[in-house]
Amino acid sequence: MITLIKGFAGKPSHAPLTDVSIGAYTVGVLMLIVGYLGFEEEAMAKGSLLAISGGLIVAVPTSLTGLLDWADLSKGSNARKLANYHLVVMLLATATFAVTWVLQRPGYLDSEITLGGLVAGCAALGLLTLGGTLGGALAYVYGVRVVKQDVSLADALIPGRLEEPKAGGQRTDFSSPATSAAKPKKQKKAKQQQSYAAAPAAEPVGAAAPASNGSAGAESAAEYEARISGKR
Description:
Helix content is about 70%, strand content about 0%. The chain is mainly alpha-helical. The termini are far apart.
């Protein structure tokens, strides 16, 4: 039952539901703005409230599926922290749209755009934009509910054919607490220092070059020994 609500791997329910609610909210606020500017105010006053009503209705299953996805994220992970912010902002946006509905309700009856409904609607749309940005980062940065596999078209399209990736799979492990990105840099720096320490020391200036396998190298070495013996 939970799987049917959340959606299958590669077919999450939350994402398409957010598209419906965001679209309805956006259309409702645009109608408020256009109607307040004097364009078909009577029609916009009624249409805006209907659109916002649709967004509020769809917000119920959208919130439910989002909470189920949120519960799967490990505590302490960066994805869970970001999901907390996303949750708070979207709840505020939904509450503000509910206030917009209440303030615009008299305008629906009088066929006019109320100033209170317009202001609240614009504020709600701003919160919605912020919340959507945070939600997008969960999907496109941390890969929440994202399945990245090279499978057949049938497996990709038919629900239930795929499984959620496990830790260490092909996507980022958003379930585990994230490690600091500074650690690889420190390890790389330590390896560089070790390579510098292992490098051979430079030959001192004026030191005799080692003899090579050729005859010229052997004669040079003999001459060098003779000069040293003569000085002694």
